[in-house]
Amino acid sequence: MKDAYPDFLHHTPEVSDLQTFYKAAKKRFDEEPEFKKRSQEEVVALQSGDEYARKAWQICCDISRKSFEEVYRRLGIKGLKEQGESFYNEMIGPVVDMLEKQGLVVESNGAKCIFTDIDEVPMMVVKSDGGYGYDSTD
């Protein structure tokens, strides 16, 4: 977002701009190691409560919400309670602490994981960069 829309805090993009940005950012993430690293650092900043990152995220949510609300209105859907992944950010750390105290968390390659008998692939509760992935937020 910083690269594509450097003034986005003051000149809000449209939802179609966000869609274009997302596609371009995904391509860069897959192809450019430095962009991937910066993107991962931004996610950690957001999850850590960084004010700039949270403001940028809120702008993206507001833009998306306007679009969703129009679709919901046209479909006659009312009364939805919105609680995205970020709703749980403040709860994740204490849950990870609890899991560690119970001896369920194992460090693996710098990440905090839970291994089970169900699958060889562990649940990654904290990524090696300190961020939380879908195993934690979902």
What sequence of helices (H) and strands (E) makes up the elements? Answer: HHHHEEEH
Q: Structural class, please? A: mainly alpha
Total number of distinct structural domains: 2
Outline the biggest β-sheet: 3 strands, antiparallel
**Count of individual helical segments:** 5
Classify the helix fraction into a percent range. 40-55%
Q: Strand share of the residues?
A: 5-15%
Our Rg estimate from Cα atoms comes to: 18 Å
Q: How many runs of DSSP E, i.e. beta strands?
A: 3
Mean pLDDT, as a whole number? 87
Q: How are the strands of the largest sheet arranged?
A: 1-2-3
- Note the gap between the termini: 25 Å
Shape category: globular
Instruction: Report the uncertain regions.
Output: none
In short:
This protein is mainly alpha-helical.
Can you walk me through this structure?
By secondary structure, this protein is mostly helical. It folds into 2 domains: 1-82, no CATH class; 84-138, no CATH class. The protein has 5 helices and 3 strands; from the N terminus they run ααααβββα. The protein has a 3-stranded antiparallel beta sheet with strand order 1-2-3. A hairpin with a 2-residue loop joins strand 1 and strand 2.
